[in-house]
């Protein structure tokens, strides 16, 4: 019987041991038995899975390999403490693949058969650290969000208060914790609290509830509130969390938008009514427009026909006046003839103005572009101006910009028409004082020049109420029956249209009873076929005579450009020869040397770039270097650099004047 009891006891103890071993081996935590030197003696399944070793590999490791990169003295100190007691700490362990993970270690010393061992229970705390980090980040987000996040218990006592709440309500956290939520609720809105808390107790969530709240300074604000219940760890309701957003500006903008919408709606209705009215009258307006177009066309045709019809006999009358002047006349007849000539020319001027207006209105008014010399035109105008001013005892002054290119292409007759009209008006409306006529260059490009003409007087000026109408047709400042100054009111209207055709403008400055200044701008083409450079050339310059022995080769395929370049070089005093393409230039260079080559770029047979390459190739290994200057119409950004890259020494763009050519030649001579 006693033996049986002992057997049963052994069996029970053995079964318990197996259970304990199975439990330890399959535990969720890592369990490792270390020798006193730190070698791994036993390890459970969690350890094998966590470190990535198989059982044999893991049992061949020691604590120092699990905690590599950590100071050995720290590990030894912890082991020593564990041998004689118990120790808890956090560290990092390394897997087989070299990755590491955070662990929480609890080690205790055990004695078996008088031998010391260390039993360590190791827990992977990766998820716990991650959760703690997320919790900290969430807490920081809650604390620093712009919205007010307020916690309160079921009685309404404030338990938390973030920075957003401080900014919105003006209270610091220490001023609110432990206070009732009613400190930020106006009296008339206190029922909000009880309604919200009743819903929270019914496990409801309130989202986007709009109400009024009170700031510390007493000001009221519009807010949008979201309220959520707060539970403890056992699931019991303990309070509520308010997320409050200040929507005062939003409500104000909404109101403004509503007001604008109502205003726009009213305007839209008004526009719709106007549209209906316009639609109703559209057909009538179309018919009126057609009638007006017909009337305007008939008027223009009538004016054109009448002007032409009247001009025929008028030419006869003026011709007869000229013939009568050749006969013997007494003093009375001469006086009558002068009056006749004046009246006929005045009538012809009126007819010409009417004809111009009819051409403009019918779209037939065009400029006649021809080469002319502006200096001759201005000389004639200033002479006539001086004579007219002398007749009225007016002082006359004029200024002409010295940098103007006088050889132009444009409509000289129309230019003269505008200037004479402006000058005659100035003389007509000025009884005493002076007339100042100016011409200056505004800007110029390679082939165009814009000039500004101005006529200033000390006459009666323009009345303020007439300034907006002065360029309208058939309108005069004095329209009374006793008007002092004659005229049709067409001169300035025609001048305005001529200015537009010349890519210019016309305007004025005027002060009543003090005088006026009329400005007129026009654009002209530059005429390079004329000898415009001789006036700028100082033939007395000693530099012009020092280098006559220098020889220049001009390579140019255009006949006119060649002629201009040759004449410039000749006036500069240099010897030269001409070639009309690169091939011809190379033949000339074989026969005689030159100091400079003026090289065109675009040429038939052999262009300037290729010619330069051949010349530079022939200079390799010699001491020779002919200065080659590109002479081309290309003038875009980068063209000069391209010429230099091709082996040329400098660049001059067409069109150029003689001074520009002189400077570039002297640079190399």
TrEMBL record:
Main location per the UniProt record: membrane
Domain PAS: 16-86, 134-204
Domain Response regulatory, chain residue ranges per copy: 551-669
Domain of life: Bacteria
Modified residues (4-aspartylphosphate): 600
One GO MF term attached to the UniProt entry: phosphorelay sensor kinase activity
Coiled-coil residues: 250-305
One Pfam family matching this protein: PAS_9
Record's keyword terms, sorted: ATP-binding, Coiled coil, Kinase, Membrane, Nucleotide-binding, Phosphoprotein, Transferase, Transmembrane, Transmembrane helix, Two-component regulatory system
A GO CC annotation given for this chain: membrane
UniProt domain Histidine kinase: residue ranges: 305-526
Domain PAC: 87-137, 207-259
Location relative to the cell: Membrane
Matches recorded under NCBIfam families: sensory_box
Similarity section: In the N-terminal section; belongs to the phytochrome family.
Protein known as: Circadian input-output histidine kinase CikA
